[in-house]
Automatic annotation (TrEMBL):
Family according to the record: Belongs to the short-chain dehydrogenases/reductases (SDR) family.
Keyword S-adenosyl-L-methionine: no
CDD domains named among the record's database cross-references: SDR_c
Originating species: Halobacillus salinus
Keyword field: Oxidoreductase
Source domain of life: Bacteria
SUPFAM superfamilies named among the record's database cross-references: NAD(P)-binding Rossmann-fold domains
Name of the protein in its database record: SDR family oxidoreductase
Length: 239
C-alpha cells in the first residue's frame, strides 16, 4: 500500500515542486489549494492515477474556512507537508487587526488543527512525518514583515514542541526555512530590489522551489530517520 501524504498549499511554487518530488518517490498525494484551481488540474494530469488521492479546496485564513476544510479532510495520513502561506508587507503600526488575524489563522491555527486531526491515526500506526515550511524571517525577523515573522517563528516553536511529544510514537516533525526563493510570493520585487537581495546572499542568487522541496524530500526519507525537531535552512548562506 502506498504511503499517503497531504500537501497544504500544493498550488504554490514550493508546494508544486514538493508534490512532484514525492510522487517520484512513490508517495500517493492529496493536494490542498485555496484558489489556484487550474494549477491543481494541470498537476493532476502529471500524477499517475494510482498516486492521485484528490484535491481539497479551502481558505485557511479564517476559522470557518479551517473548520470546513477539516470536515472534508480524510483523517489517516502517513505525512503532512505545510507549504501554504502568504506575507503582508508594510509598517507594523499600519496593519489592521483583520490582517493580523488572517496571517495567524493561515500560518498557525490551521497548522495546529490539521495536525491535531491527523495525529491519532499516525500515533495508532506508530509512524508519520510532518514537515512545516517556515521562513528565514521566522528565525531572524524582518522589518516591515513583523507579524509574518511572528507567525513563522510560532511554526518553528510548534515543530520543536510537537517533535518531543510524538517521537515515542514514531512520528518525526521538522521544519524547512527558505530564504529568498524565486516564487509568486516574491514576484513583486523590482529588478533593483532583487539585485540588492542577491548581493546580500553569499551564493549571489535567489533559490529555486526545487531546492526547498529537495530538503523536504530528505526529511521524509529513511536517510533522515534520526532527525526530528530540527530546522533545515535553505537560504544560500543568507544568515
Amino acid at each position: 500500500m502506498r504511503k499517503r501524504c497531504l500537501i497544504i498549499g500544493a498550488s504554490g511554487a514550493i508546494g508544486l515542486a514538493t508534490t512532484v518530488k514525492l510522487v517520484e518517490d512513490g508517495w500517493a498525494v492529496a493536494c490542498h489549494y485555496r484558489s489556484n484551481e487550474q494549477v491543481i488540474y494541470r498537476l493532476r494530469d502529471q500524477v499517475p492515477s494510482e498516486q492521485w488521492l484528490g484535491a481539497y479546496q479551502g481558505d485557511l485564513s479564517h476559522p470557518e474556512g479551517i473548520q470546513a476544510f477539516l470536515d472534508g479532510m480524510d483523517e489517516e495520513w502517513d505525512a503532512l507537508v505545510f507549504c501554504g502561506g502568504q506575507a503582508w508587507t508594510g509598517l507594523f503600526q499600519d496593519m489592521s487587526v483583520a490582517d493580523m488575524d488572517q496571517l495567524y489563522y493561515l500560518h498557525v491555527q490551521s497548522t495546529w488543527r490539521i495536525t491535531q486531526q491527523a495525529l491519532p491515526a499516525m500515533i495508532s500506526n506508530k509512524k508519520g512525518h510532518i514537515v512545516v515550511v517556515s521562513s528565514v524571517f521566522g528565525e531572524e525577523g524582518a522589518s516591515t514583515e513583523v507579524v509574518y515573522s511572528s507567525v513563522k517563528g510560532a511554526q518553528l516553536s510548534f515543530v520543536k514542541g510537537l517533535a518531543k511529544e510524538v517521537a515515542p510514537s514514531g512520528i518525526r516533525v521538522n521544519a524547512v526555512t527558505p530564504g529568498w526563493i524565486q516564487s509568486e510570493m516574491n514576484a513583486h520585487l523590482s529588478d533593483e530590489e532583487a539585485q540588492m537581495l542577491a548581493e546580500e546572499i553569499p551564493v549571489g542568487r535567489a533559490g529555486q522551489p526545487a531546492e526547498v522541496s529537495g530538503a523536504i524530500r530528505f526529511l521524509m526519507s529513511e536517510e533522515a530517520s534520526y532527525i526530528t525537531g530540527q530546522t533545515i535552512k535553505v537560504n544560500g548562506g543568507w544568515t
